[in-house]
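As promised in the previous annual report, we have extended the structural survey to additional targets. Below is the entry for Outer membrane lipoprotein carrier protein LolA.
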Amino acid sequence: MNKINPIMKTKIQEIRNNSITNMTKKCFQIAAILLLSFTSTQAQDKKAKDLLNEVTTKIKSYDNIVIDFKYSLNNAKENINQDSKGNVTMKGNQYVLNFMGVTKIFDGQKTYTINPEDEEVTISKVNEKDDNAITPSKMLTFFNSGYKYNMDIVQNVKGRKIQYIKLVPTSGKDQRKEILLGIDVQTKHIYNLIETGKNGTKTTLTVNSFKTNQPLSKNQFTFVASKYPKYYINKLD
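The corresponding structure token record, generated without further manual editing, is:
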């Protein structure tokens, strides 16, 4: 069997890490929309605001959320077409994300990135002041400002009525052109999240399964080192 060129392996890992990071952001974007009350003073579409508030009211009653999803990354110009599946469990400020063979656990203070391929666990503290840090608290204020939103198209997806809301960044420096949020009109649950970049890249997160109030283990969001006796523990802080 031919060995992978070290440079190519590094590139593959970089792509995978970027995809995991983007996926984490999108999961929190969904969480943000689920939990936020949209009280921005900017002129907004009242129907869009009312629908988002309906979603918020319903979701606030859930103790936890478990999502199975499909993640697609497409850029015709660069000939990129990538599909991956994963799942995420969220409760308050904690989460467990399984995506592209890697598990990320956030216990509310530290992030544990478990990589079976490299037999490595990376542990890092979360710095709330870091603009690039992905944290639930930061994402829960993500849509409070910097966006204007309005009702968009309605689609019939396998008998489900999906109402889209378009969010457009107000800052010209934002590399995203727009975000489309699809909401199941009947259940008031998120169906998908479509983000289009100014460079033509489109990423889509589609919710295949949306479960709530699931029986979770008491160690659901706890990293147990004894499960990985042969792994290299890389502490960044």
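The mean pLDDT is 79. The first strand starts at residue 65 and ends at 75. These points will be discussed at the next consortium meeting with the crystallography subgroup.
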